[in-house]
Amino acid sequence: MPSVELDDLLRLPAGVVSPYEVDRRGGATPEQWRRRFSDARDDVRAAKKALRASLDELDEMGGEKGNWKMTPPGLGQLQQQQQGPSGSASPDGNQSTTAPLNYGLANSIRGQKQEVQRAERALRDLEVEANLAGVPEDWRH
Questions:
Q1: Residue-wise pLDDT tens digits, 51-84
Q2: How far is residue 3's CA from residue 123's CA, in Å, rounded to a whole number?
Q3: 30 or 84, which is more confident?
Q4: What is the torsional sign of CA 45, 47, 50, 55?
Q5: 60, 121 in Cβ contact below 8 A?
Q6: Which residues face 69 on adjacent strands?
Q7: pTM surpassing 0.70?
Q8: Cβ neighbours of residue 40 under 8 Å, at least 6 residues apart?
Q9: Out of 96-100, 122-126, 129-133, which region has the weakest mean confidence (pLDDT)?
Q10: What is the DSSP string of the chain?
Q11: Least confident residue range of 21-25, 89-93, 110-114, 129-133
């Protein structure tokens, strides 16, 4: 049987990487940073896609002219009297440029715009955090 020195028994084999030797920046490994950046970019893409779909739906509601707004009853007649007969009114006398036709869709679009801003802000914050931690560029892709 070959003899093994005591020092050899107390050392890890050459191919084993110690968890303390893993390159970490800001407490995270390269894979963790890549995952965080990937997730942040996916959030931005998903938020923009949802907003784009709602805006397309809004355009479809308006027809070819993109005329998708109206006013509360009575307000259009008041505005038409102030503007004179040349104002662009719908057949029922309402102005066509003051309030969204579909309030639910308008609220959804407003929320989706806020979600896009939130996702973009989260990605910028992650960039700042990575810069402060000295994260290399190749860990961000």
A1: 999 999 888 876 544 444 555 565 555 555 555 5
A2: 57
A3: 30
A4: negative
A5: no
A6: 100
A7: no
A8: 119, 122, 123, 126
A9: 96-100
A10: -----HHHHTS--TTPPPTTSS--BTTB-HHHHHHHHHHHHHHHHHHHHHHHHHHHHHHHHHTTTT--EE--TTHHHHHHHHH-TTS-B-TTS-BSSSEES-HHHHHHHHHHHHHHHHHHHHHHHHHHHHHHHT--GGGG-
A11: 89-93
Hey, what long-range contacts does 35-41 have (CB within 8 A, 24 or more apart)? 36/126, 37/123, 37/126, 37/130, 37/139, 37/140, 37/141, 40/119, 40/122, 40/123, 40/126, 41/123
Distances, alpha carbon 23 to alpha carbons 41, 127, 128, in Å: 24, 19, 20
Amino acid (1-letter code) at residue 50:
A
pLDDT tens across 103-118, in order? 788 889 999 999 999 9
Place of tokens 């029922």: 92
Q: Residue 89 has which token pair? A: 């009114």
